[in-house]
Amino acid sequence: MTSNNKVVGVGEFAVSANQGERIKTFALGSCVAVIFLHKPSRSVGLIHVALPDSRISPDIAAKRPGYFADTGIPAILKEMAVLTGTGTSNGLARGMVVKMAGGANVMDTNNTFNIGKRNILALKKILWPLGMGPAAEDVGGGFSRTVTVGVASGRVFISCAGKGEWEL
Amino acid sequence: MNRQENERAVARQIAELPLLSSSASQLLALGAAADHGLADIVRIVKHDAILTSRVLKVVNSAAYARAVEIHAIEHAVSLLGEDMVVTTALREAAGLLLAKRLTGYAAEAGELWRHSLKTALAAKLLAPKARSPVNGELAFTCGLLHDLGKAVISDYLEQTAGKIRQAIEQGRFPDYLAAERAILGIDHAEAGHKICRRWQLPAPLAESCRHHHQPAAAERWQGLLYVVHLADIIAMLSGIGTGADTLQYRLDRDYERHLELDEAGLNSTMLAVEREFAQVEDIFC
């Protein structure tokens, strides 16, 4: 089966149960990719979140919920629930493995510029009560990650210019 | 090549760089002039037939989804605004240099140009937040040019990208600039400054190349330089860098003395930069 790449841009998300597909998102910077691996249905979801809180722009949140942690996670989980046929987030949490990558920062950052850390915290606060806290993460540091996940394999790979590629 | 040889080779390449077109030089210089308006831009563009046709092509590009085709250059310039005309002119005059693949940074063709454009947009949006007046159009132009030096020194950095990253992570260099200097005797900031001098661009543009990572070291235009410093970091945080050196620089926290920028302000700026970049990316990248 040929492997097709589905590319997820900033503030977008994608879900897939197409076993020949890979989902990919480029150059996360301070943005965070959350990867949902639903083992029972062999489905995968990936969201590229840019900012923690949608309150700064309800307009954009309405058009592109994936942009923010608080609107993005419910939006992708809704699609995952439909795709996997589990219906609710409770059902979805069973058999779900969540991984997280990104949230980089600049050297000598202060709190204001540590958007990566704020993104990670906001996402975890949303995921934990759902029983979907990340099982693995590759976050922080001063590099911009590209993430690829294979639907069939459920394997997540991270790459970065000058650092090569490794598995999460 | 050893360090001295590298340094000489970089200097030679800068000295041999082709000059910018007269219209591009004039447009880049215009931003630094206190009093100027769209009429001055129109006058410069009109004298350059190729640039005129480019500007008309840009203003009529599908991304703007205009109802009617624009034929008059005056109309085109007023619709696009100074920043997009300057971008068109620089892309035309130095596109090969600014869009080239940066082997030394492990960056693909076009990455430097995308980073430059995003930094320029961020700089213009940050300019009103400076505590002393900073001209937004000038900040935009400085953002477009700030990493110019990478296009030249990249060739001499060769296969060092992975090694430099590792050395910084191990604490052997404080940042990427220091590593560049250790290998080449010159860093991309200084190289950019030299290129601006070669092109006879106004001092604020040359200084913003030279000091965009260390704005405190500058004697003048600190407000402008801090704006470019932060704009560069915003572009890198948003994921648009130039390969291996992305985010391998230090934030100068003294920016708070020069700009009013809190967490909410930064979030809104990042959002606005993303929106504006999405609008022009298809046209210029």
UniProtKB/TrEMBL annotation, chain A:
Pfam families on file: CheD
UniProt cross-references to CDD domains, sorted A to Z: CheD
GO molecular function list: protein-glutamine glutaminase activity
Xref: SUPFAM superfamilies: CNF1/YfiH-like putative cysteine hydrolases
GO biological process, one term: chemotaxis
Recorded superkingdom: Bacteria
EC id: 3.5.1.44
InterPro entries: CheD-like_sf, Chemorcpt_Glu_NH3ase_CheD, Cytotoxic_necrot_fac-like_cat
Keywords, sorted A to Z: Chemotaxis, Hydrolase
Catalyzed reaction equations: L-glutaminyl-[protein] + H2O = L-glutamyl-[protein] + NH4(+)
Gene3D superfamilies in alphabetical order: 3.30.1330.200
Purpose of the protein: Probably deamidates glutamine residues to glutamate on methyl-accepting chemotaxis receptors (MCPs), playing an important role in chemotaxis.
Membership in a protein family: Belongs to the CheD family.
Full protein name: Probable chemoreceptor glutamine deamidase CheD
Taxon lineage: Bacteria, Pseudomonadati, Thermodesulfobacteriota, Desulfobulbia, Desulfobulbales
Gene: cheD
